[in-house]
Please model this.
Amino acid sequence: MSKNLIFFFSLMIILISCSNEKNDLKRANLYGNVKFVKEIQYSAVEKFGEIVEQDEMNTRESTYNEKGNIIKSSEPSQTFLEGYLSSEYSIDENGNQICIIYDSKHSIKSKLIKIYDLNGNVIEDTFYDNNNNLKFKVRNELDEKGNNIKDKMYNSNGNLESVTERKFDKNGNCIEAISTTNTGVIFQKWEEQMYDKFNNMIYWKLTIPSSRSVHFEHKYEFDKNNNWIRQVILQDQKPENVIKREIKYWN
Model:
């Protein structure tokens, strides 16, 4: 996996797994009645004292209904060899979210089922392959505020694979996450996480004990609804990426 996808999926683990919000717009930290979001990621370089985008790397799109829940999305696969993956979302009779993931030929690749408690918090994620065989399951432990303070990942045989424990600030933002193997060995740490007044992450440190630590800094430009539309990402104080957003609203 490329370092940019490692960065992206590490960040998603922080933002999505930590969130205790009740619809998908809030989980994605989007303000207003958002209908559609398109993100284009570029490599970045500094020129004449300014950080500018260079080569286009990938695109992600998400579409939301008027209730603020995601109904479809598109993003690059983790390997790039499979091209882009598309997803369609629905709610079953029990109020759980069903996500069907398709490959670039629109063949079913996998399925994800999210189970919610009575307060709308995700308490379990179950992943299946294209033959509906269980791949793995993640069970969440919540605090009294609905924050996901611990999750346990189990393999298809029901054996514990890993545990992630988190700490939160008073605004419900995750400020630390530590992942360990089933024997308690730390393999990944997210630390020193800081946020702006709109709950966007502006700084964090990722440590992989078997490798190294890297520091990320995020700088934003916003639209009138306080959603960021341009993000600059610095890795160890050097330009890494620019992400530009196109956002459409229902009204």
